[in-house]
């Protein structure tokens, strides 16, 4: 079976008829002529859909032949027979004129695509036949598209190039079918100035499970985008395949997902019904791999952060200048090498190497802190990079400068330490409460452990209150809140050495812009010495009173 014959099957389900019962040799010239005269060979329309918005953009027109005694005759049988009997041009004209006549009555600006065999491309008069058939069907030439296979580009292409030139000057677009499995070279691809490239279905159908197929598809899409031509993916059978193609930037899809080849009434119905819209998140990339590569390189050069990509073998594939500056390593010593082999910056990449290894094992590592030159400090985020189907292809490393943040943190810690030291020398403890009286801040307390959180300090403070005082003080405090007036009370707390100290707690309300109390601020002062002095004075006063009475 020729490539042209395979193409006309268009990836339909298997024919019910056993092809062994009929072969091309059994189809005589007379039988084919009779079928053409009776219009027994009909056009069938398969949709080509825009992967961006699922709009129906056109149809590939295929030939279908059904006989009462033979049933459905596969195109892989009668197309080679038509070529052998010299009837392939007649077959094209009959199918093209019938398809154009039917499609001329449908609304829309869709195109019709027809297949040309390598043999037909050697017919210098083919353009006149195509033009006459389209005009008879009242269908615009500029909405026609002719598809040729790569095998047509082998050998003497002089006549074929002249024919393609005639077709293009008339507004007919030319597509290269089954790209990737034939013998064409880029020079001839450029010489024919194709308007469209069609990716062979074998690559599309293997994309989900075969990384090499995805790479080939991505390369063909990138080639088409770089040349400024449309790209069509044949054999799209699943939504997952459509999603991958959309992400890679493929514009059009064709295959079972969007329907089998159908007679004219079915095609007209498809135009009316459409295929719905893709999900909003399913965006199509208009940028070619060439454009994306240069965009990425620009980002790498000018990004204010350090960037690096490590492949699945833990080799450093790319890194920007900022990354190399931080590691104090030359690009020649870094790019293409394994992280384990980085003698120039071994100490700095040790943490990165462990994180990259964790990513390879499916774990999510914590950010890695990297000490730079001098007092500089950086935080590295190490994350997996996945391809279109979620397969990990490498690891991304992003480093940001946190030097100022670390300095600020040190300054805060030093300030807290200074405050703590001052607080330990001071008998006063600051506290604050919400409008409802709930204490939500407590300053460093007498004898409290270092680095204790505010919540822990509040809990510890309540735990040091004398049991006889805690209930009383809480009742006094809650009962006083509605007054909105300054509050004051005294109670005992247990000191770090186990002794009990008297403290005085005072609080004043703070009013917000609306005049309502939005916070209470308080101060606790150790009054043990004052209490002792008051007690001593009271004792002395009693003694003095006793002396006076006896005198």
From TrEMBL:
<dbReference type="InterPro" id="IPR035919">
    <property type="entry name" value="EAL_sf"/>
</dbReference>
<dbReference type="InterPro" id="IPR052155">
    <property type="entry name" value="Biofilm_reg_signaling"/>
</dbReference>
<dbReference type="InterPro" id="IPR035965">
    <property type="entry name" value="PAS-like_dom_sf"/>
</dbReference>
<feature type="domain" description="PAC">
    <location>
        <begin position="487"/>
        <end position="539"/>
    </location>
</feature>
<feature type="domain" description="EAL">
    <location>
        <begin position="25"/>
        <end position="275"/>
    </location>
</feature>
<dbReference type="InterPro" id="IPR000014">
    <property type="entry name" value="PAS"/>
</dbReference>
<dbReference type="InterPro" id="IPR013656">
    <property type="entry name" value="PAS_4"/>
</dbReference>
<dbReference type="Pfam" id="PF08448">
    <property type="entry name" value="PAS_4"/>
</dbReference>
<protein>
    <recommendedName>
        <fullName>Histidine kinase</fullName>
    </recommendedName>
</protein>
<dbReference type="InterPro" id="IPR013655">
    <property type="entry name" value="PAS_fold_3"/>
</dbReference>
<feature type="domain" description="PAC">
    <location>
        <begin position="363"/>
        <end position="414"/>
    </location>
</feature>
<dbReference type="Pfam" id="PF08447">
    <property type="entry name" value="PAS_3"/>
</dbReference>
<dbReference type="Pfam" id="PF00563">
    <property type="entry name" value="EAL"/>
</dbReference>
<dbReference type="InterPro" id="IPR001633">
    <property type="entry name" value="EAL_dom"/>
</dbReference>
<dbReference type="InterPro" id="IPR000700">
    <property type="entry name" value="PAS-assoc_C"/>
</dbReference>
<dbReference type="InterPro" id="IPR001610">
    <property type="entry name" value="PAC"/>
</dbReference>
């Amino acid at each position: 079976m020729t490539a042209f014959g395979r193409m006309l099957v268009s990836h339909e389900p298997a024919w019910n008829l056993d092809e062994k019962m009929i072969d091309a040799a059994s189809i005589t010239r007379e039988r084919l002529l009779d079928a053409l005269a009776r219009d027994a060979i009909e056009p069938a329309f398969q949709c080509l859909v825009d992967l961006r918005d699922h709009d129906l953009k056109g149809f590939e027109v295929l030939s279908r032949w059904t006989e009462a005694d033979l049933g459905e005759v596969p195109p892989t049988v009668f197309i080679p027979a038509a070529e052998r009997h010299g009837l392939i041009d007649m077959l094209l004209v009959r199918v093209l004129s019938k398809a154009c006549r039917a499609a001329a009555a449908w609304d829309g600006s869709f195109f019709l695509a027809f297949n040309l065999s390598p043999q037909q491309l050697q017919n210098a008069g083919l353009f006149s036949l195509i033009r006459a058939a389209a005009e008879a069907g009242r269908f615009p030439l500029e909405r026609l598209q002719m598809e040729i296979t790569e095998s047509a580009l082998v050998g003497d292409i002089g006549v074929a190039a002249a024919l393609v030139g005639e077709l293009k000057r008339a507004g007919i677009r030319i597509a290269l079918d089954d790209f990737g499995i034939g013998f064409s070279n880029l020079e001839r691809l450029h010489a024919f100035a194709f308007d469209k490239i069609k990716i062979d279905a074998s690559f599309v159908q293997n994309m989900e499970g075969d990384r090499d197929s995805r790479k080939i598809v991505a390369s063909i899409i990138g080639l088409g985008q770089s040349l400024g031509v449309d790209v069509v993916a044949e054999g799209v059978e699943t939504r997952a395949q459509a999603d991958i193609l959309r992400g890679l930037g493929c514009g059009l899809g064709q295959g079972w997902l969007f329907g089998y080849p159908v007679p004219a009434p079915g095609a007209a119905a498809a135009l009316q019904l459409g295929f719905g819209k893709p999900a909003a998140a399913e965006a199509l990339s208009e940028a070619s791999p060439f454009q994306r590569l240069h965009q990425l390189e620009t980002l790498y050069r000018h990004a204010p952060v350090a960037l690096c990509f490590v492949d699945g073998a833990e080799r450093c594939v790319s890194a920007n200048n900022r990354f190399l500056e931080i590691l104090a390593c030359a690009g020649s010593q870094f790019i293409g090498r394994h992280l384990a082999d980085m003698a120039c910056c071994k100490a700095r990449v040790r943490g990165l190497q462990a994180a990259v290894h964790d990513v390879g094992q499916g774990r999510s590592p914590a950010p890695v802190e990297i000490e730079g030159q001098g007092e500089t400090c950086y935080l590295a985020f190490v994350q997996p990079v996945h391809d279109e189907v979620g397969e990990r292809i490498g690891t991304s490393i992003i480093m940001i400068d946190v030097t100022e943040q670390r300095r600020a943190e040190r300054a805060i810690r030093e300030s807290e330490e200074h405050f703590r030291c001052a607080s330990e020398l001071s008998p006063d403890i600051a506290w604050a409460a919400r409008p409802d009286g709930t204490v939500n801040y407590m300053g460093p307390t007498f004898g409290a452990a270092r680095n204790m959180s505010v919540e822990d300090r509040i809990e510890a403070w309540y735990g040091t209150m004398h049991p006889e005082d805690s209930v009383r003080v809480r009742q006094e405090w809650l009962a006083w809140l509605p007054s909105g007036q300054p509050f004051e009370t005294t109670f005992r707390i247990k000191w770090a050495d186990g002794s009990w100290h008297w403290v005085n707690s005072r609080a004043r309300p703070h009013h917000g812009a609306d005049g309502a109390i939005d916070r209470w601020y308080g101060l606790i002062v150790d009054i043990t010495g004052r209490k002792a002095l008051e007690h001593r004075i009271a004792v002395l006063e009693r003694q003095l009173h006793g002396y006076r009475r006896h005198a």
